[in-house]
Write a structure and sequence with these properties.
Blueprint lengths: L1 H7 L8 H23 L4 H33 L4 H36 L3
């Protein structure tokens, strides 16, 4: 009974798998970038450039993921439940893709910082 009430109130705040994936997508570029900079020998200047840049990349990845996913999901609400389920599965795949994009972006950022900044 309580579960039905929560579904009827779209403003109800719940922690979902989407939030977990958004958190992973946010932290992946940061963790990967800092780990790669540390592996290359670190240096204060590299960390000073890499950390804020990784946070900016993380924010962009999550923002794009959230806005595009939300727009697609809201658009799918006018279609039958079967199509909505397919859209949900596609958005799940999109979440995994955004995590992959964040990871690759973190690796590329670290390589750029290591190659262009002195220790």
């Amino acid at each position: 009974m309580e579960h039905d009430i929560l579904q009827k109130r779209p403003g109800t705040r719940q922690l979902t798998l989407l939030h977990l994936f958004l958190g992973v997508a946010f932290f992946m570029p940061i963790v990967v970038t800092l780990a790669a900079v540390k592996h290359s020998g670190g240096g204060a200047l590299r960390y000073l450039v890499a950390a804020p840049s990784a946070v900016v990349i993380s924010i962009l990845v999550v923002y794009m993921d959230w806005t595009l996913g939300r727009a697609i999901w809201l658009r799918s609400q006018q279609y039958p439940k079967r199509i909505q389920k397919g859209v949900g599965v596609a958005l799940f795949g999109f979440q995994l893709l955004s995590i992959l994009v964040g990871t690759v972006s973190g690796v590329k950022l670290a390589a750029f910082v290591v190659n262009h900044l002195a220790i």
